Structures are given as structure tokens and as C-alpha cells.
Amino acid sequence: MSKQIALLRGINVSGTNKIPMARLREVLTDRGYANVVTYVASGNVVFDDPGTATEKTAVGIASAIQEEFGLDIPVIVRTRDEIAAVIDGNPLPEGLAEPAKFVAVFLSAQPKNAWFVTDDPKKYEPDQYVIADRVVYMWCPGGLGRSKLAANFANKKVPFTATARNWNTVLKLLELADEA
């Protein structure tokens, strides 16, 4: 059976939007998702593909979170194969040497007029980013905490959901999806 991966945005950050992972697994299992596994407390959930489109699955998970925890949490869902394609399509191989400073920003839609589409990437150097299919690869060799690029992704508004995962997490999510 194939897997889907849910990426919850902005949970368990600095004491806000608190969701216990054990309870989240129970809630999703009760909603019919099978073999639910969470990875770290920042909102990564791997489960058997319920046979629905990822967009519909995202709405279902967001609804379950709203009903159980009273929180409006944006959710992006990708299939196992879509996560593998993000890894295989990495256009910034130099980021692999520093996976904690290399992130994939998952997008709920393909960007058109978002700030990072219209900005000149050179103004963020030495940071680099590349826009692909509903993902932005971002490498910040000086560290994410000091990066104007990373701060913009965290703070500037976009007309869709965006949530980032460091490269180690992306690799781990694929590993969890591949486990029987």
C-alpha cells in the first residue's frame, strides 16, 4: 500500500498551537487513517494512502484537528512518490553538505505572483533558492536564523499555505513512508 505524508504548519512552536503527537495519532486513526506514524513534534504525519486526493486528505486532517483541538492548522499532504520526487529533483546539491541549513518549503499551490517569484534571488546571496513544482528549495549556508531569505519565507504573506522542512526531515519522511 502506498503512503501519504501530512505536513502541519506552525504547531508546537514556542508553546503555541500545541498538539500532542500521541493524541493526534489517535484522532487520525479514529478518522479512518491507518498505520499513522508521527515524526518529531513539528507536525509530520505518515499514514496509509486513504485512496483520496491529497487535497481532500488535507482538508479532512485540518477538520479533524479543528474539531479535536480547536485549532485552525493549515495542512499540506503529499504522496510518498511526491516526496521522493522532491528528493530526486534537488537542484541545489551543495545544500546536501549542510542538511540543517537546507530546506524544502512545501506549497499548497504553484506560486504565480508570490514575493519569491518576483524577487531577484541574487539579492539574498549567499543564500539560494529554486522554485519547482509546489516546492521551493532553499539553502542558507550562513544558517537559517541569520538568513533574510528564511525570515521572508517565515514572515511574508503568500496567498497559499507554505511550510518548511529541513532536508534531514524530508529524507526521514521518505524513509518512514517506505517502511512496511
From TrEMBL:
Pfam family, one: DUF1697
Superkingdom in the source lineage: Bacteria
InterPro entries according to UniProt: DUF1697 (IPR012545)
Stored PANTHER family: BLL4334 PROTEIN, DUF1697 DOMAIN-CONTAINING PROTEIN
Protein known as: DUF1697 domain-containing protein
UniProt organism field: Streptomyces coryli
